Amino acid sequence: MAGRDLRALFSTNDRTVATSEAFTNRQAQWELVAAALAEHLRHVADPDFDVEDLERPRNNVIVFHGVGGIGKTTLSRKLEAALAGADQRPAQWGEPAWSGERILPVRIDLSRSASTSFEDLVLTIRAALAELGQPLPAFDIALRRYWEQQHPGESLEGYLTRGGLAAKFGKAMPQQMQSALSDVAQALLLPGTVGSAVGALTGSLVKALRERRQTVRALAGCARLEALLDAEPDLDALSFYPHLLAWELAQLPADKTTVPVVLLDTFEDVGDRTHRDLERLIQRVVWLMPNAFFVVTGRSRLQWADPGLQGQLDYTGPTAWPGLTSPAGGVPAARATRPATGHGRQVLVGDFSPEDCDDHLARRLTRDSRPLIGADIRQVVTDRSHGLPLYLDLAVMRFLELRRTGHTPVPADFDHDFPALIARTLSDLTPDERHVLRSVALLDSFDLTLATAAAGLQHQAPTMRLIERPFVRENPFGIWPYHLHGLIRSTIRSTDDHTDDRWSPRDWEQAAARALAALGAQWQAHTGRDRLFLVGCLRQGLTLARDFRLDLDWLAEAAWAYISDSVWEPLAPPTDSNTGTPLETAADGLVETLSALSRRQHEHRDRTIARLTAVIDSRRLPAELQDVAVYYRAKADRDLGHTDASRAGMQQVAGGTSRLAPAARRGLAHLARLSGDFPVALAIADTLGWAGRHHRVRGDVWWVQADMQRAAAAYAASRTEAEEHGIAGERATSQAQRALVIAFTDPDRATDEIELAEQLLTGLDLRTTSFTVKIAALVRDAGGPSVQVEHRGHLLRTEINTSGIVAAAALLELALAFHHAVRHEPDEGRAVIDRLRDHVRRGDYSYSYYYDIAHYMADLTLTEASTARWIDGEEQARTGWRALVRARQEHLHTST
After folding, report:
1. CA nearest neighbour of 640 among 835, 850, 807
2. pTM of the entire structure?
3. What pLDDT does 549 receive?
4. 213: DSSP letter
5. What is the CATH number of domain 417-501?
6. What percent of the chain has pLDDT over 70?
7. Cα 348 from Cα 345, distance rounded (Å)
8. In this structure, are residues 264 and 286 in contact, taking their beta carbons and an 8 Å threshold?
9. Which candidate among 158, 159, 441, 584 keeps its CA 20 to 30 Å from the CA of 504?
């Protein structure tokens, strides 16, 4: 299946290098052709099939379309070879269901470089049918009449020889045509040589057909032959002659029955949406030969099923071409190549899979049957290619070019874009379409409105045409349904192409500004709280503003909307502060801030603090957004136990007028609570209101007093307020805390509360809250088999230590202290108390009251007086925690 790669062969003097046109598996496409052809064979074998029925819908065509360089021409050639004989078919393609039928493949290249005229197309089909070994008189007489009228003095035989058809299909066609003319002349008793009397022969034949003479009864069965011979023999008439070919094929005896499979390649060069003259002629051929099967390969889908083309083409609409409009059903998947996708008989040729890319590169250039291109280079090329075969071919030529200059190719040489990709992509686009294409290359995804606005156009027509191109992919479930093929997009963005209408840096900046404004207009016009849409706008907008140094504009308000929900989806690739990358614009600062906030759920808090400090020190953000970085750095400091640093940050924000001032006052309440000053924390809670999450702050104070009932009620109120305000993150956090306190008092009921918390966390990225839910599950199971609880605690401790969230680590130890107190395991309990003491000694984060509570639960005496200011006194706190332990012991005793 592999021929010589002549371009590669003539690119090197190294005669030890073997070059081949490596064909990578396209099994999915073959299976589609095989299934469609099998269906076609059953259709034409049906007794009700009538080749002269011109009103019945047609399903005798399949279309493979895709971006330039995806491998459509190679596929067309391999299909031709596979249809020609089993010895030419790859073993993995398998035996078709119609094996045994006589199939005649005829491949016609419609590319501009091939200069194939409509006459050539008709002649090629007829020349291929010469293999049948007998005349086709109805068609041959009409064709000979046309030729002598349109090409006076030019020999058809000579034309076939010059065009290469005689060499490809043999010289039988002229002889068969001569035989057909002689037979008809003899039947009509015409004197003289037939070659000089075609006009007279045709006139006599028409007269004989009208008179229904027995001498021409064989041809009289073709109902429309008379009309075609009587018509002016021009190009328009020629386009109807294939009906005569179809009729002749239907008359063949059973032992000569043949089904032509006509492969029309490079169909995009047939014309455009304005000039459909050649397309109209070719469509007639397909319609008038219902017993032939056509495989079309080109860049675009066929529009024949579009009723809007009525008048431009003869046969249009979904009724005429049902296979070109109905959804595909059950596209078979290839073993390695990504499956073709499409609608019915309109199939989008997919990219190569990574495995197929590597296989292709390994077999293109070899020495002693071993790949010349090393695995490391093949990996780089595969990653950059996005599965596009053209990129692989260009990379192979670059490999040879580097060797020719004396350079040993290395992987870094292939971190490279090819301007040829742009030239191939833009070659058949109108100027407006090229303008839209470059504009949408700035966007991850887009719709008609966004693309048109980004291009600065007043009408959507160019965008509507562009989205039908195969390099524009569609995801109907996306926020914006369209996106560019990955390699096409990256190449257009990063490569300095040499086209006449290439953009300057200023052109790109203006397009980016238009795109950013269009995104903002869509976000501001969007009604309701749509988190996915908000995040989508931010992701695209932040990237544009950062890459092109644009003002924040609507991004500032969108950032506040993002922060308010505390969901923390990833927004954009982070700017790595540790590499010293400068934050030069407000967009740089905002991208880094929001990235640090989302990544803090997956990074150690030390890393979060470093990133936010870099943003704060750069002073690129406007004042209110600067407070965002200060506030969340203070939160990270609190998580790590840096009480003084956290308090300083919270006081700075709380003393201002930004939207985070209430949250910062809540942060001060938390710091008071964590240092054990519960009355102050409770007093601050009374001043916070909803914006400061007053109910949750109260719950945080009451549960450490062992007043679980009051704490649960406060958390429920906090969850309700969050639901009313539509704040998903706060709702999940409040429910997680409620599950924790109920786990201490009612393990049976706690299961439902924990499950609800897990449901509310779905789709959110709240690491601390997730830890709280897991710890709640440990508290619920406290007193159970110690091996299981301790094992789960050990795994959770490792996970928490990786995150650097000290608050969660202390809470975990408190849960384990409760477990050991319930089981009356003093040694294990003292080990937990020792770990809590280590937390107290480490830094300035005050966990002393957790240390105290662990003693209360185990009924141990404190060696030093408690420093906490308990709401109702220390004794009440001791009594409450000890009562919770006894209640759990009684619950376990009753359960057994």
Report:
1. 807
2. 0.63
3. 93
4. -
5. 1.10.10
6. 87
7. 10
8. no
9. 584
The CB-based long-range contact list for 827-836 (8 Å cut-off, 24+ gap) reads: 828/786, 828/790, 829/854, 829/858, 829/860, 833/858, 833/860, 836/810
Of the candidates 99, 91, 93, 90, the residue with the CA atom closest to the CA atom of residue 37: 99
Handedness of CA 126, 129, 133, 137 (dihedral sign): negative
DSSP H or E segment with residue 341: strand 341-343
pLDDT digits (tens, 9 = 90+) for 405-414: 888 889 988 8
Mean pLDDT of 529-558: 91
Most confidently predicted of 15-19, 143-147, 508-512, 644-648: 508-512
What angle, 0 to 180 degrees and rounded to 10, lies between the N-to-C axes of helices 728-745 and 767-780? 20
Distance CA 761, CA 568 (A): 12
Q: SS3 of 136, please?
A: coil
**Rounded Cα–Cα distance for residues 680 and 671 (Å):** 10
pLDDT of residue 199: 57
DSSP secondary structure string for all residues of 19-44: E--PPP--HHHHHHHHHHHHHHHHHH
Quote the tokens at residue 5.
Answer: 């790669």
Task: State both tokens at 592.
Answer: 């880094």
Q: Is a pLDDT exceeding 70 seen at residue 11?
A: no
Residue 265 φ then ψ, to 5° = -100, 155
Cβ burial of 840 (10 Å; 0-12, 13-18, 19+) is: middle
- In this predicted model, what pLDDT tens digit does every residue of 764-773 receive, in sequence order? 878 889 999 9
CB 687 within 8 A of CB 654: no
CB 705 within 8 A of CB 742: no
**Helices (H), strands (E): how many in the chain?**
41, 11
Beta bridge partners of 101: 99
**Is 579 in contact with 610 (CB distance < 8 Å)?**
no
- 3-state SS of 687-727 is CCCHHHCHHHHHHHHHHHCCCHHHHHHHHHHHHHHHHHHCC
- Residue 47: Cβ-neighbour burial (10 angstroms; 0-12, 13-18, 19+): exposed
